[in-house]
Amino acid sequence: MNLPTSDLPDWGTMPKRPGLYLSLSHGRDFPQQAMRGRGSPGPKIGPVLYVRTHYGQVVTVRFANKRDAAKFFPEATTPIVTMQVIEGTLVYGDKCYGDWDVCYIAKEFCLPA
Predict the structure, then answer these.
(1) Residues whose CB is less than 8 angstroms from the CB of residue 13 and which lie 6 or more positions away in sequence, other chains included
(2) Does the first or last residue of the chain, that is N or C, have fewer Cβ atoms within 10 Å of its Cβ?
(3) Rg of the chain's alpha carbons, rounded to an integer?
(4) DSSP string, 7-58
């Protein structure tokens, strides 16, 4: 699934809204791709209410509402979405991310709306 990531805040960019975010980094086209450098930055997904990992194979993200979920997952029908972990990488859109962090972004660090 190709997701619209061009207008999303990437890993090094602060979002417009404070809250909890899932930040993706070290992106690659497929899990076994040999990396030179850090790979591509991924988006900051959020704000979310929680991020949960199931047996290291599925990551579940809970948004406050379906509208927020649809910004990152256009086909979302609920505020809860899941992503697969394949060979140690988290799959989002057409990339596999080797690193992901859950972080809180305070209001004073957000970009002006």
Answers:
(1) 44, 111
(2) C
(3) 13
(4) TS-BTTS--SS-EEEEEEEEEESSTTPPPSTT-B--BEEEEESEEEEETTTE
3-state secondary structure of 104: strand
pLDDT by residue (tens digit) across 32-64?
998 878 888 899 999 999 999 999 999 999 999
- pLDDT in the model for residue 1: 46
**The pTM is what?**
0.86
Specify if 113 maps to a domain. Answer: no
Q: What is the tally of structural domains in the chain? A: 1
Parent domain of 32: 19-106
Quick check: is 12 in a domain?
Answer: no
